[in-house]
Amino acid sequence: MTAQQLEDFEAQVYAYVGREVCPRQPARDTVNPAMIRHWAEAMGDRNPAYLDAEWAAASRRGRLIAPPAMMYVWNQEGIKVATEGRPSDAQSDLVELFNANGYIGTLGTNVIQEYMKEVSPGDTVYMEMVIDTISERKSTGRGEGYFFETLATFSDQAGKVIGTQRFRVFKFRPPEGTAAAMGFEPPDPGELTPAPEPRRETLTSTDFEPGETLPPLQIPVSTGLIVGAALATRDFEKVHHDKAVAQSTGIPDVFMNILTSQGLMTRYVTDWSGPEAVVKALSIKLGAPNLPGMVMTISGEVSAVNPGSRTLELQVRGDNNAWGNHMSGTVSLELPA
User: Which CATH fold topology does 3-334 show?
Assistant: First the structure.
């Protein structure tokens, strides 16, 4: 691009700040046990608060709930994203503007979710979204590009706010020849440690101290996990199931989506805390991608405890055995009295 072309292009890009992606609209399906079960199976999450109606009825909630990390899943477009492309809206038009100007790479990099209300089977999740920010042009290890951030608000059929989500995406120009240069041979994972058994009796805020570490959890990353979890989160972006498309963005194989990463993070935390803990917030930043053949080890530490409000904050990270840190972030929990 010439300097004038770049100036004109950026003027078009920044005009999208503040534009509405969608008005408040309902998901096509109500919250339902089948989608919850598919999500939980993909994540390896056995939390009875999501899956066991008899246990849930006897719990302090008195009902099944959907995993909080599914909040965005209910309003996903589904398979037509892969077969027909995304319907025209401010976000898809912005993405097409980037693509048409050579910024064809797409990576989700950050998610911050806050949860105000749990939802149960039969509830309807409504979503409204705007494009909140677009960064200046950045040079990164993936290439040159722009970060844009959407802000979504979720509510139920009565208008009560379920939660909010800030989602940051990087649109970039992959360096020429990157995929060929990134030949990837999965390292030998060695002998894996069996996953710790999920806790059935929920902790209270007096059961641990700040600085306490959580037992690690090893997740073998396979093509089946990457594709299956992408489908369970209704994410049909081709980079998560089409190797050739992933390679066109400079990554040598299909890679795990951010919805799976946050699902595994919350599974890890609630396996440790117990099923009656309430997830209040999640913040996750992605680093190196997870590819088939890798093993991700999730670890965590209690970073803060507030006995008065029965809340705690956990620092969590997931490191793969090939390229290092895949995800890092925090999860906030509220514990029963």
Answer: Thiol Ester Dehydrase; Chain A (3.10.129)
Q: Which of 249, 21, 284, 16 is nearest to 135 (CA)?
A: 16
- pLDDT tens digits for range 6-35: 999 999 999 999 999 999 999 999 999 999
Q: Which residues pair with 254 in a beta bridge?
A: none
Would you state the pLDDT for residue 309?
A: 86
pLDDT band at 84 (very low <50, low <70, confident <90, very high): confident
131: part of which helix (H) or strand (E)? strand 126-134
Task: Render pLDDT for 30-54 as a digit per residue (tens, 0 to 9).
Answer: 999 999 999 999 999 999 999 999 9
pTM score, whole prediction: 0.92
Strands 324-334 and 278-286: antiparallel
Distance in angstroms (rounded) separating the CA atoms of residues 149 and 165: 10
Residue 180 pLDDT greater than 60, yes or no: no
Do the Cβ atoms of 238 and 80 come closer than 8 Å? no
Q: Which residues, 6 or more positions from 241, have their beta carbon under 8 angstroms from its beta carbon?
A: 82, 226, 227, 230, 231, 254
Nearest 10 degrees: CA dihedral of 240, 331, 199, 220? 30
237-263 in b/e form (b: 16+ CB < 10 A) is bbbbbebebbbbbbbbbbbbbbbbbbb
C-alpha to C-alpha distance for 286 and 206, rounded to whole angstroms: 32
Domain ranges of the chain: 3-334
Using the predicted structure, report yes or no on whether residue 179 has a pLDDT greater than 70: no
Q: How far is CA 24 from CA 102, 162, 243, 248, 274, in A?
A: 32, 13, 35, 35, 34
CA distance 314 to 304: 7
